[in-house]
Amino acid sequence: MSSEITLFVNPTAGRGRGAGAAQPAASALRAAGFTVRTVIGEDSADALVRARAAVADGTGALVAVGGDGMANLALQAVAGTRTPLGLVAVGTGNDFARALGLPVRDPAAAGRVIAEGLKGARLRDVDLGQVGDRFFGTVLASGFDSRVNDRGNRMRWPTGRLKYDLAMLAELAAFKPFPYRITLDDGEAREIEATLVAVGNGSSYGGGMRICPGADLRDGLFDITIVGDCSRATLLRVFPSVYRGGHVGHPKVTVVRAARIEITAEHITGYADGEPLGPLPLTARCVPGAVRVVGP
After folding, report:
1. CA–CA separation, 60 vs 3, rounded Å?
2. Is the overall model pTM greater than 0.90, yes or no?
3. How many CB atoms neighbour CB 203 within 10 A?
4. How many CB atoms lie within 10 A of CB 215?
5. Per-residue pLDDT for 14 more than 60?
6. Residue 56: which CATH number?
7. Contacts (Cβ under 8 Å, ≥6 apart) of 11
């Protein structure tokens, strides 16, 4: 393995924490004897080109500094290769880093864990979800939660998590379940009314909401959480329990496991790792061992 490590940096992550996080992470890696170079693109497309070039040139590891969006971009560069991925999580959600057991919002600690992992060969292969040519690490969301994302992304004010809290209130005011058609491994199409359908490679999204609490990054299967045709009042009662994964015991919630799923619904956007994939229908498949990660 090359001793040169590539830091893949989003300077705007966590309201500017990304730029400040790169230095302590780099210092920890250099203290462990690694050579560090930094990649910052002019935009996400340019950054991905540069990251893929670093992987092609044989970098010893690609270390993404930012949030879930940056982690998702890094996955597009390393998926299907043997180049290890490390995460210095300083964004708002950081769900993929949590799933991997990595430090969150402590760049020096994350840098030390990554350095120790690389030197001690503490590497493991974990699954990814794939939609078309796009990979994701945590959850493909659709339905009420993706509608909240849509609305929040259109809002210019306020910023941060408050924007999405207000977007959620606005979506609740117009809430109604959506007609879905879901096709799993068995090929049988199921017509249902659902509030949301979440396809989990990892267990959480939105900064710790454990929407698919039983998801395992190494079992070759998605955990698919289907919240049925519940009322607004039921949704409000059930929602707080998502943070501990307690919603899966509710009679309106069903969890199924599958390696492949096709989701169809009108006027619904799919989001994976918080990034928009496009309108449904979408087909996702679980790709076993698709990425090598550094972690405890």
Report:
1. 6
2. yes
3. 23
4. 26
5. no
6. 3.40.50.10330
7. 18, 19, 22, 40
